[in-house]
Amino acid sequence: MIPMIKSLTLALALAALVGAGLFSLLNTAGIMSVDKLEYLHRTQPVTVTGKIVSINMNRSYVVLTLVGDDGFEVVALINRTRLEALYGPVTPSNFDPNVVVTGIYDPSTKTIYVNSVLRGCHTAYSQPAASTN
Amino acid sequence: MILLVITLGIFVVLSTYLTLWGPFPALVPLGASTAYRNIYLHVPMAMLSVYLFTAALAVSIIYLLRANVRVMRWLDSLIIVGMLYSWSAFVTGTIWSIESWGSAWSWDPRQLGLLVVSILYTAYPAIRGSISDVERSRRIGAVYSVAAYASVPITLMAPSIFPSLHPSVGEALKELAANIAGYMYINLAVLSVITYLVMSIMARGYGTSRWLPLMVVALFVAIGTYLLIPYFAGDAFRVIDVSTLGVGILVTLSNGQSISTSCVNLSPLEVDGQPTLLHQLVTINGGCVFVINHWSVGINMIVVGITISIALLFMNKGLTRIYGDPYD
Fold this sequence. Notes:
The complex is a heterodimer.
Chain A: H1 2-29, E1 32-33, E2 44-57, E3 61-67, E4 73-79, H2 80-87, E5 98-106, E6 111-118, E7 129-132
Parallel strand pairs in A: 1-2, 4-6
Antiparallel strand pairs in A: 2-3, 2-5, 3-4, 5-6
Chain B: H1 2-21, E1 24-25, H2 39-65, H3 69-100, H4 109-130, H5 134-149, H6 151-161, H7 171-175, H8 178-204, H9 211-232, E2 237-244, E3 249-253, E4 258-261, E5 266-267, E6 270-271, E7 274-275, E8 281-285, E9 288-292, H10 295-317, H11 319-323
Antiparallel strand pairs in B: 2-3, 2-8, 3-4, 6-7, 8-9
Helix pairs in contact in B: 1-8, 1-9, 2-3, 2-5, 2-8, 3-4, 3-8, 3-10, 4-5, 4-6, 8-10, 9-10
């Protein structure tokens, strides 16, 4: 009986360790909120989510101002040609209120040089079905 | 064995039908909506891996309370198949996300969590096989299985806790159009039967059908390759603009070509005033526009075929040769 209890106790303790480890990993390595960028001090790749407060567009770039939950603001600079190759013609109304971008963050200018604007698939699932016949 | 062959046949036919003609969401946030036919491949693999690991948890606890060789055989077969399915779910999801999220890797918490789950369970056969004392190996394996399971519910709940590109648990399936969800569940049910039969054979001994893995992978590779033909031929183009004409529509493609047509194989052509043809991948033939699957569906068919084929190979090999345990 005792070896069984010892084994189960060990298993549960290890499970707690695994769970805590994975939770910590997802908390630090997952998609960050924009406000976490405030604590970065060197240029590095990031994937962040933020609320859009303004959108400006010219021929070459789409410039988004993103804000985090505590008010920290950054600029996301997106190559317009690359964006429109994925999304087609882009207007400010194409953007959801919250956006996820991946790119290189420069803390000296608080600018993200965006590689990709990512989209979650949430809204797809509530759409009616289509078919190819 | 005959039942396994029959259900494999049903799965091949059903998966082929769904990836060629199955329904998909009409409007999606990014890319071609035909990429969502990956629902019929990726989601059953992911769901089944969760069920198998959950069953493995229960079986591990039973084994720790009452050591039994038959229980151990079931634990070992649950984990080896669950591990294969979790890797398959990770790979198919990553390939799908290139189109539908905009990047193969995005630090999405569910994607990252699934990678960790797959790695953890991949270590199980290595751990079991590295301990020469059989009783000790089984007990440590059961302990490890309980410990590793902690990663599963966290991965499942991750989209509800952290910013994520995945929908939360149950959210997508609840909202899916009834026919899409229905077909997905049918495919899941057939794959579940196949999985149970494979594991039963493994848990009792080993399979003897040497041609079955080869047949399965050949069929899925053939179907996947068929889906990729337009890409090999250079005939696939992205629709970058759609405008309505008096009769028909004007379609502008990524190669600069514009075509005016009323012959399109997509239905419906519009939802709430938005054209469903926009961003689709198409071929042009005889003045008609044919919407084709995104290439991720073809590749994922091959991935799923390889996964099932490897499961069948393991079934043929037998647990003793996989784990080095005589189970006596």
